[in-house]
Design a protein that fits this description.
Elements (H helix, E strand, L loop, with lengths): L3 H21 L3 E7 L2 H17 L8 E7 L5 H11 L2 E6 L12 E6 L2 H6 L1 H5 L6 E8 H13 L11 H35 L2 H9 L10 H9 L1 H8 L3 H10 L8 H13 L2 H4 L4 H10 L3
Amino acid sequence: MTFFADQSIVTQICRDIEDRLLRIGIVFRIFGRVKTSQSLKYKLEQRSDKYITENKKLQDLFGIRIALYFSDDVDIAQEVVRSLYRFHSRSIDKPTNDSFGPTRCNIIYHLPEDLATNSHLVSTVDLIDSTFEVQYRTILSEGWHEVEHDLRYKCKADWNDHNDLSRSLNGIMATLETCDWSMIKMFDELAWRHYKAGIWGPMIRTKFRLRFQKVELTQEISELLTASDGLAKAIFRVDRTEFLKNIASQNILLPITPSNIIFIINRLYIKDTNLKNLENEALSALLDERIEL
């Protein structure tokens, strides 16, 4: 059981984060929850002495999970959320060379004052902090984390004296991390092949791996890229992560199409006059307003 006002808070946070991520076009899923009264009671009873002694409070009353389809989008999603909410603290594990296991990427943010004020639980329970937690995962690891959390983390005694099986469970996570990496490399290779063949629309889609609308690259842009191999090369060499962080920071809101991605790249990095001349009047006005040169 949760209070309606508290449920509406997590819904609002999810909606705001989702809106910003959709503007960039990265592919993701987002989930939100408020701790149930039973879960909250259990955690406060188990840790209340520690909270009081160490002057700490429960920080994950509100939990958000962002599952990214590509592992290199985790950093981008973090930057987007950081632009919306004030950072508090983080728990990020770094993998080591000589062992494998689950890695956490959990970040605590401050609730905006208006949301904290509206929370019944934050206002009435002294041991609850006015914060929320965001967990960043890949879509491939999401199911593994759910299984591990419910069937190992919450019942550690079940795994006593079975270290071999526990290590095997971690090994599944290691396999999934390899799959995350391999999927990116596969798309990179596909983008390279399209580039070498001069097939520009598929090159853009496979290089940037966004939730593109079903609109093809315009013939005018395609012909220009074919006539000027240097222009196509400059577009292909743009760093995807840097580019997406750039359009996120400048809050550029445009339909995600191959043509628009090329126009934005040109404005940010290349500044080719012939390509700029292909912008329509409305697009030019919006990019003039949004992009800081």
